[in-house]
Amino acid sequence: MCAHVLVAEDDEKQAELIRRSLLAEGHTATVVHDGAAALEAARGLAPDLVVLDLMLPVVDGFGVCRALRGGADPDIPVVMLTARSAEDDLLLGLELGADDYLTKPYSPRELMARIRTVLRRSGRGTGARDGDPVVRAAGITVDPVRHEVRCDGATVDCTPAEFQILLAMAAEPERVFTRRQLLHRTRGFDRASTERAVDVHIMNLRRKIEPDPRRPSRLLTVFGVGYKLTGNRV
């Protein structure tokens, strides 16, 4: 099962550990560090699951969870993380609609196990067979565990940002991604990036996976919107 997970955690080291654990499990991840950014990302990216720290700046985790439950996708799974261990906090989180709750410190393996359980229960997450994190589309194979890309059987060397963009698009072929959505996939690799940087990543990917980069047949531009990966050759 391959899912796109939104991680809202203000501790950057902890957030990076979660992100790496998710990638090793075959998921894609977007990381934000405050509650307002979490709500913006949730609205723009429609993630399959949210890992939500309670002690977030700007808007705390309770406020984020409350807003998510009243938003366009009220059933989005939420796994809450907190340094608080008080029973009242646990009960409030569950009453607001959290699907699971972990108290810090916790092991990354336990968090990944909880995420797998919540995703399986919710029926969310696509793009890979059960037990197989490898994503395949349009003659391209993306293996997030080995961090390998193959195109028509040949190995393709990708930068970390290129890899995350290709993994996201291969997991949902034919879906049109905006530049902003793809930029979120690269957060943590180049925080100074702008949406226009996505165009450069796409151009570089075309050089690597297209028979003729000037006339792309896999990685297509959808004018006025963004990009999509298609298996239909043109």
From TrEMBL:
Residues 132-231 form the OmpR/PhoB-type domain. The modification 4-aspartylphosphate is found at residue 53. SUPFAM superfamilies: C-terminal effector domain of the bipartite response regulators (SSF46894), CheY-like (SSF52172). The keyword Nucleus does not apply. Residues 4-119 form the Response regulatory domain. InterPro entries: CheY-like_superfamily, OmpR/PhoB-type_DNA-bd, Sig_transdc_resp-reg_C-effctor, Sig_transdc_resp-reg_receiver, WalR-like, WH-like_DNA-bd_sf. Residues 132-231 bind DNA. Signal peptide: none annotated. Keywords: DNA-binding, Phosphoprotein, Transcription, Transcription regulation. Coiled coil: none annotated. This is XRE family transcriptional regulator. It comes from Streptomyces incarnatus.
